[in-house]
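cron nightly-structures :: item 1 of 1
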Amino acid sequence: MIHLSQNAIRELKRLEANDPCSSGVVRLVVVPGGCAGLTYDLWFRQTVQATDQTIKIDQLKIVIAADQLLNCDGLAIDYAEDLMGGNFRFANPLAKQTCGCGVSFSLTAAADQSSADCLATQGAPFLSGSL
């Protein structure tokens, strides 16, 4: 099960409403990237594939590929604004490692890399992309 905070729901609805070509579908994906190996991404204007799992949360249709769903069991998505701007924040209880700035994660533990920081290698952190 994937959980969205009220702030995340509100922001996803706002972004969807401002998209003139919205499809009513938000795709959650886990893609290679960051210093820990994997990052989350949210994509709009998506179509639902036959192998997708669809999760309806407060009038939002979130789709995720069936093969990625097990890696996101218990995932909590929040949205917060601070001096750096607004970002989606992902908390996955299955993550064994995260980078220092919280942008990327790994499902397997790796020695001596838990304090790595994406800022040192990739520029400013963005906790979601393609929004």
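cron nightly-structures :: done
The domain at 3-121 is CATH 2.60.300.12 (Hypothetical Protein Aq_1857; Chain: A;).
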